[in-house]
Amino acid sequence: MNLAALTRSWPSLAAWGAGLVQLGLGGGMVTRGVDVASRGVGLVLATVGATALVWGIIALARGRLVAPGVAMAIALLGTLSAGVALFVDPVRVSVHAVAVAVALWLALGVASAVLLRRRSRRSSADDAQARPSGPAPAAGVAGIIVGALAVAILVTPALSAAEAGSYVDDSGNPIVVPGHGH
């Protein structure tokens, strides 16, 4: 099995995982934020998360890492905004969720940097010869399954640790918060 075909989808999946965690963190800060700063950071987190999801969809649809410079920028902005969120509201922002998001951003950033480095070392003729001649469907599907499992194992607990996940019980029904008359 070709390792490149197996791992081709992983940057997209890392972007989805990090984007989902960013959306969870941002949603918690926007809805439960106590001040303008935390709500503003929450809005940035949610925007970066949504951007990562869109980029991941485009990259997975094309079957390759697209716009690696943009992906690196998203990863950098995601890492910085997660760190700022932890600084602005350390009581409500989960360290676990931030750590998972940063790890996934790092994976996306490194994959993008490696691709940019390879492109800068090759001429356009060499790049055309180095591309695989055809898709490897079995390796691609196996890679997506393995990558999705890895991201799910990381992201699920991180989302439950985010502020937005702390107000939902296991059945998906909102928990009545005491003192709010509901």
TrEMBL record:
Keywords: Membrane, Transmembrane, Transmembrane helix. The chain crosses the membrane at residues 12-30, 36-58, 65-88, 94-116, 137-159. This is Uncharacterized protein.
